[in-house]
Design a protein that fits this description.
- The chain contains 17 helices and no strands.
- The chain is mostly helical.
- The longest helix is centred in the middle third of the chain and has 30 residues, at 135-164.
- The chain is globular, with a radius of gyration of 21 Å.
């Protein structure tokens, strides 16, 4: 079914929310290179310091986000997002003036904390303002923003550093968050929707209990088969991706890429993910079987990942252009996993629980992303990077195949919250 990916932008409220997300996503990725340049080049620190920065970025999503999201579900979403953006501006200023690694890590952690609060509020706002009929396009646009800024942010950050200096991206990042605040000020009030959802909530009559609200979000995941299986699939996929992600540069050298053209390989993956998001936004028939698409994409992408590993061992020899095309296809398949997951998360979660459920899912995914690089490095030392890559590819294919078998067997049990069959 072909539909317009930009159709949700006709909604004034979503237009304001999406504008804020563009600048917020840009800010999330703009300082990535700046942090590494400051730590490695200006301060002359080693790989452990870089790893500590990455851990400080991800840790709030694991240990704070799921608990704080209970309050996000109770509070006005527009106000939460604006306050989070203002705090991000303050913490970015802290990064700009940080005199040493320890102060830098503190502000990286604080910035990650407010980001872990902002995202559940944004997810809840999408669920509130977008009708079910436009959810596939809205989720795809949201993922398109994430994928595009993953490419544009670091590239723009590198250019800014070259022209204005190592700490200059922080200033542009703060400006981006300020523009995002302006967009959110244009967002119509969500108060009437939130009050309606509260009245419909089962525990509205009594004062809500923190641990009950927290556990309700977890229970919803476990009691919703379609949502549960998609979170497991995406978390496992994240673990596998980050298992080999840090080894990719070493494999690239072995298949013939030098410092000059290695960036083309990474850019091809990013360009493929953007192209895949656009494709899924125009043809939305996948929303009837989203887990089938996620699983099939994992099955196929595993073959490409294993092929790169075989190239590192010398069993496959292709010119750089073929590898670049393969990387682009890998990016397209990556979108085939991330976009349907975002749709399932939105469509299978009640509005009043969106913050808790999305934060719990993100916590599991981020935990996978944090532990995977260390596991990958240990395996690479004992087995070699190409074998880790081959193993990751085989695991990805096996994961996709297993999930396809599971959903084919249990497809009749996958009911959405509206009791409408979405997947099978």
């Amino acid at each position: 079914m072909k539909r317009g990916i930009f159709k949700p932008l006709k909604l004034k409220s979503f237009r304001a929310l999406f504008g804020a997300q563009l600048f917020s996503d840009l800010g999330n990725w703009l300082d990535l290179i700046a942090l590494q340049v400051i730590v490695a080049y200006h301060w002359g620190l080693d790989e452990t310091a870089i790893a500590s920065v990455i851990i400080a970025l991800g840790l709030p999503w694991v240990i704070i986000g799921p608990f704080a999201s209970v309050f996000v579900d109770r509070l006005p979403k527009k106000a939460v997002m604006i306050v989070c953006l203002i705090f991000r501006i303050v913490f970015v200023a802290g990064l700009f003036y940080a005199p040493n690694l320890y102060i830098l890590l503190l502000f990286v952690f604080l910035k990650g904390t407010v980001s872990a609060l902002y995202d559940p509020a944004r997810q809840s706002a999408i669920r509130m303002i977008v009708p079910d009929s436009l959810l596939p396009e809205a989720v795809t646009l949201s993922q398109l923003s994430v994928n595009t800024m993953k490419i544009a942010g670091p590239a723009l950050g590198g250019g800014i550093i070259a022209v204005f200096g190592a700490k200059s991206p922080f200033l542009f990042e703060a400006a981006g968050f300020f523009i995002a605040v302006i967009f959110l000020l244009l967002l119509p009030s969500l108060k009437s929707i939130e009050e309606s959802d509260a009245i419909m909530s089962e525990d509205y009559a009594a004062k809500r209990n923190f641990w009950k609200d927290f556990s309700d979000g977890i229970k919803h995941i476990f009691h919703t088969p379609l949502l549960k299986i998609s979170i497991i699939l995406s978390s496992a996929a994240f673990f596998i991706i980050f298992l080999y992600d840090g080894l990719f540069v070493f494999i690239a050298k072995q298949i013939g890429f030098n410092e000059g053209n290695f960036g083309l390989l990474i850019s091809a993956v990013g360009a493929g993910s953007v192209a895949g998001s656009l494709l899924l936004g125009h043809w939305t028939a996948w929303n009837r079987k989203p887990v089938h698409l996620m699983s099939s994409s994992a099955l196929l992408s595993g073959a490409f990942i294993a092929a790169v590993g075989l190239g590192g061992l010398g069993f496959l020899e292709f010119p750089p252009l073929i590898w670049i095309i393969g990387a682009c296809i890998l990016g397209i398949l990556g979108a085939g996993e991330s976009v349907p997951y975002g749709y399932i998360l939105q469509s299978e979660t009640p509005k009043q629980m969106m913050g808790r459920v999305s934060a719990a899912a993100m916590s599991l995914q981020t935990f996978s992303m944090l532990i995977a690089p260390a596991a990958g490095a240990l395996l690479a030392k004992s087995l070699g990077a190409p074998l880790v890559m081959i193993g990751a590819g085989m695991a990805t294919t096996l994961l996709g195949l297993t999930m396809l078998m599971v959903i084919w067997k249990k497809s009749r049990s996958f009911k959405s919250i509206s009791e409408k069959q979405l997947d099978g």
